[in-house]
Design goal:
Layout (H helix, E strand, L loop, with lengths): L4 H4 L17 H12 L3 H13 L4 H21 L5 H16 L2 H4 L8 E6 L7 H12 L3 E4 L6 H11 L3 E5 L6 H13 L7 E5 L1 H4 L4 H4 L4 E2 L3 H12 L4
Parallel strand pairs: 1-2, 1-3, 3-4, 4-5
Helix pairs in contact: 2-3, 2-4, 3-5, 4-5, 7-12, 8-9
Length: 239
Amino acid sequence: MRGGGRETLKGSHTSVSFIAEDNPYFGLCQAYLETLLRGDRRNAGQLVLDAVDGGASVKYMYLYVFQPALYEIGRLWQINRITVAEEHFFTAATQLAISQLYPYIFTSAKKELRLVAACVGDELHEVGVRMVADFFEMEGWDTYYMGANVPAASLVQKVHEFCPHVLALSATMSFHQRAVEQAIQNVRAAQGGRRVRIMVGGGCFKYLPELWRKVGADAFAPDAAQAVVLAHELIGITA
């Protein structure tokens, strides 16, 4: 992360764990976190696979294990309990765990709906928007996930080629706000860009409820599940 990153996250609650006891998968989430903090990514991933093989919903693994654990690891970094290297290890290990769930994800009947998802500018925190793209896949959307650090020109090109119903953009740090705003302007100015509905998410928008309006988006989604609900509302269909 860049220097000054902790300051950009002011307003977040650093004193309270994101792994709450009312989490229906509290024990699993806590075990997943602790296993990765020991550096054991193989067994951490196996915990999740075992839960899914035992009947747990893949969506629930995203919402109640990966998401709160990632938030918690970010909190631990903010309060200097872990290093940036440990945070990066945790994120990479979670991406690996997510990829192991893909045989369960890419099985839904398609709805002829399309999503493009990306992090723009210099944004490198991609796991959140990757989870969003996976949720759309589970809902039968065709998705084009572009990953981190996507140049604005490449984003405009892919929107033109893929003709998505929805474009999802993510930013974690507040200093990427301008890049999101510029990307939205570029998409809107391009041929066909006014038709696509644009939603934003990530820490940059989480603690500033009206920021999504300022950057020109159509909606803000606090998590992957809400992103799907909002997408259907934006394009006027029933999920």
